[in-house]
Amino acid sequence: MGLRRPSAPPREPLPGADPAETAAGDTRIGSWALALWVLLLTAAVVLLDVFTGTELPLIPLMVVLPALASVFCTVRQTTGVAVWVTLVVVGSRIALTGAFWDVAFVIGFTALASGLGVVACAARIRHANEVARLRSAAVALQRQILRPLPVVTRQVCAHGLYEPIEEDRFVGGDIYEVVQSPHGTRVIIGDVQGKGLPAIGVGFAALGAFREAAVREPDLTAVADAVEDAVVRHNGFSAETGETERFVTALLLGFDDGDRVQVVNCGHLPPRLLHGGTASAVALDRTSVPLGMAALGGEARTAERVGFPPGADLMVFTDGVTEARDADGAFYPFDERVGRWVGQEPDDLLDALRADLETFTGGVRRDDVAVLVLSRPPAGEKAAGSPGDAGTQQTQGPAT
Questions:
Q1: Measuring CA to CA, how many Å separate 188 from each of 24, 75, 109, 176, 209?
Q2: Residue 128: in which H helix or E strand, if any?
Q3: What is the rounded CA–CA span in Å between residue 34 and residue 39?
Q4: Is 368 within 8 Å of 393 (Cβ atoms)?
Q5: DSSP state, residue 73
Q6: Neighbour tally for 241: CB within 10 Å
Q7: What's the whole-model pTM score?
Q8: Which helix (H) or strand (E) holds 370?
Q9: What is the pLDDT of residues 222-252, one digit of tens each?
Q10: Which residue from 184, 173, 180 is spatially nearest to 206, judged by alpha carbons?
Q11: Which residues lie below 8 Å from residue 346, measured CB to CB, with a gap of 6+?
Q12: pLDDT tens digits for 315-348?
C-alpha cells in the first residue's frame, strides 16, 4: 500500500492583512482542476488539428488559454498555462515542415500572447488589491460614523436594521446613535435630506454633536439645540463651497429608570409602542421643525413624556420603511405588518420586517432604511460602568 502525502493545511492570512485584499489574489479554480481542463482542451485541439490537416492549422488557437486563465487564476497558474501552451505550439510547429518565417511567426505570436496573458493576470490582481484596500479604508471610516448593533446600556437594549440604498456603502443618509450619559440613555434616529456623500457629511456632523451634547447637557432639548447648531454650521460651510444646504428630520429620546420616555420630535415620524400584542403610534403633541431649520420655526423646541411600560418595545424608524412601494406604487402597510410580529424577540421582528420589505418591494429600494427596536434590558445584561462614563456602551455583535 502506497503512502499518501498529507494535504497542506489552508494558509492563514498574515497578521494585519485585509481579508478582501488577500482574497483578491486567491485562485478561483484549483490547480488540479485547471491542469485537467488544460490537458483536455489540448487533446481536443490536437485531434481537430490532425483531422483538418495542414491547410487549416488549429494548434495556434491555444493562445486563448492564457487569456482565459488570466481572468480566473493566479499569476503562477497563468504562467504555467502560458508555458504549456508555448511548448505545445513550438513542438507542433517544429515537427512540421514549412517555411521558416511561417514557423517563426507562429512561435513568436504564441510567446507574445502567452506573455500578455501573464501580464494581464498580474494587472488584474494588482487592481483588485487596490480596490480592496480602498474599500477596507472606506468601511473602517464609515464604521466610525454608525456603530454596530445591538447596543446595551443601563436603561436600553437597542437592536436595529440598517440598509443604505447604495449597496456598495455601509452608511447612507439615515443616522442613529445610542449614548449612555449621566442623565440616562439618549437615543437619536434621523433622516438627512437627500442622498449620497453630501448627506453623509451632514449626518456625521449631527452625530458628532449629539455624542458630545448627550453627555454634557442635562436637558434633552439642549441636546437637540446643540445638534441644530452643528447642522447650521455645516450648512454654512456647504454654502461657501457651493453645496446644497440640508436639514435633518430627527427623533431624540431620553430614557431613565422610570416607565416614561422623554421625546423631542424634530419633524420626524412618531415611534410605535409594541405592547400587549398590539402596535400603536405614540401620540406626540409637540412636533418642531427639522434640525437645521430652527430659524424658520419661531418657537423653541420642547420635550414631552410618553409611556414606556415594563415589557414593552419602542420602535423608531425612518421613512424608508413607511414610504416603500410595491410594483403598483402602493405604500408599504407598516402598522398592519408590524402588528403581526408584536411579542417576538427584537432580532426576529427585524428579520421578519426585512424579509417582508424585500418581498413587498420586489427588491427595489428607493430610500435608506433604518429601524431601532428599543427595550429594557434584563438586569443581567445591563452595561457596566460609572454613571458618568460616556463609554459604557456595549456592542453585542455585528450589525443586524
A1: 38, 50, 65, 5, 11
A2: helix 100-145
A3: 9
A4: no
A5: S
A6: 6
A7: 0.67
A8: strand 369-375
A9: 999 999 999 999 988 878 887 778 899 999 9
A10: 173
A11: 150, 157, 159, 313, 373, 375
A12: 999 999 999 999 999 999 999 999 999 989 999 9
